[in-house]
């Protein structure tokens, strides 16, 4: 197996995003763009990844190191062009033996198969491969000037003659080099062009002039969608969502209205899960087989067990673990809580920092009062207990197995196993007093 080094260029300023956040940190499916690119590099077999960032991009470096401490980061102090950027990764390519791929961080939708196809062109003998594609409108892209299956040169849009502008086969930005070829051409790149930039794309003509074999491979257009502004960011999001929906359905998940369901990059849904309309999955969600996510639910950082039922209109927040066959019904919010097997929270509740045992029933309107304005406290409810409607459980508090809390209680002390807790003021009925009230009203009116 040939070793692969992938250089990801991410030093551009991304001015058109009009943002104080570096462009490649804007998210798609809850993951920064650069994270998508790095993931793809990894699944396409990169042995080493080096990312070229701009001087003010400390945040990108931090993010990359949380993803993988092994990723190399180099700084390009001045943005003098893609050729100059790739050159900055010299410590990585200088003594490397194998294939060197160069990718753009603002092409987050690229798929491993496309890189694999390009790799095969190198395997078959090419020294340099450029991934081309045919965009609906080629305006703005580098044109691939072909002679048969040989690539003669890449001409940037701004440097194109009128004749060249008509060419529809464009540079996606992805290039693969045999390391020797890269070393032989990269120092020869100059900046005599319309933008006075060092274009990496010039490598094609230089390599050819030196006698290297320069070929192309192809990519579908949606994979090389460049993100330069927020309109394109939304397009990339749409592309990502349609891929996720299709994957989920092909894996056996029913999406009643796929276009209304939104996934995160890491959503895991097992087969035979039913997802109704208008459901949003934030990062960190796992849904086990047989579960149903009813309409208008929002889940993030939560695990939904086998056959569990969520929603409609439920919100599961990070740290929630709904065991098999449990239920969180309409207008129920659960945060950082373990809900035991078959336990039910059917209506209008807030359960936070809690542990709820198997088979327990939490009545409508139950609230765990987990926060005193400064600290958070835990509520522990055992198995097969019953919490009557509209109870307030003031944490820290423990309600043991089989206990019963009368509705409308404010529970401030622990409740022992199988005990009944009633924490509310006693009702008094005054016989005939309603008549007296009505009598007073008629007196006032007369
Ligand atoms: C580039 C290609 C063009 C191709 C198009 C596809 C060149 C010269 N042109 O043009 O042929 O059709 O992409 O989208 O390569 N970057 C740096 N440092 C720099 C300049 C750029 O790291 O000094 C990075 C940017 O962050 C970006 C990538 O390189 O991720 C591409 O740069 P950009 O300026 O967007 O190139 P395009 O003009 O789009
Ligand atoms: Ca670009």
Describe the structure using short key phrases.
8-stranded parallel β-sheet, UDP N-Acetylglucosamine Acyltransferase, domain 1, 446 residues, alpha/beta, binds uridine-diphosphate-N-acetylglucosamine, binds calcium ion, Spore Coat Polysaccharide Biosynthesis Protein SpsA, Chain A
What would you say about this model in short?
With about 450 residues, the protein is of the alpha/beta class.
Describe the structure.
- The protein is an alpha/beta fold and 446 residues long.
- It folds into two domains: 4-224, Spore Coat Polysaccharide Biosynthesis Protein SpsA, Chain A; 251-421, UDP N-Acetylglucosamine Acyltransferase, domain 1, CATH 2.160.10.
- 21% of the residues lie in helices and 28% in strands.
- The protein contains nine helices and 38 strands.
- The strands form seven sheets. Strands 12-15-18-21-24-27-30-33-36-38 form a ten-stranded parallel beta sheet, with helices on one face. An eight-stranded parallel beta sheet has the order 14-17-20-23-26-29-32-35, with no helix packed on it. A seven-stranded mixed beta sheet has the order 5-4-1-6-10-7-11, sandwiched between helices.
- A hairpin with a 2-residue loop joins strand 8 and strand 9 (150-155).
- The longest helix is centred in the middle third of the chain and has 21 residues, at 230-250.
- The N and C termini lie far apart (101 Å).
- It binds uridine-diphosphate-N-acetylglucosamine (UD1) and calcium ion.
